[in-house]
Each structure stands twice: as C-alpha cells, then as structure tokens.
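Quick note —
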Amino acid sequence: MPKPLKLQQGQVWKLGDDFLRITRLERLAVEYKATSGPGVKAGKLHQVTKKEFCRLIKTATLLAAAPAPAPKLVRPE
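Predicted structure written out below.
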C-alpha cells in the first residue's frame, strides 16, 4: 500500500499540461493557482474544498521541491 501524501503549502502538482501550486491550505479548504509552468507566478486562482482538490490531483504527479538555498555566512565587521 502506498504511503499517504500530506498536502503542504507550496507543493506543485503536474496535471496534464497544467501545474497546480497550493497557495493556501486550511483545514477544509485549499486555494491553488493553475499555471502553464512550474516556475510561473501568473495564473488563475481557484478555491475548492480539500476533498475536491484531492479528487483533482488523484491522477496528478507531485513535483520534487526545489532545494532550499544554502545559508550565507555573515561576518561581523
């Protein structure tokens, strides 16, 4: 049995030719942005219930998160 995935804000899902990025995640609602590319900021904003979103991404693929930038070393003057 596959391990269940946990929805998180900022996740990007690929569904066909569209990319869905979770912009706000609440207990019972999900706000996501549908875009044409994974790094594109402009797109149409949608608000659905969590159940509707889970049904929507049933056939989608979760993209790997971008690595966090390395912390910069700060030297006191």
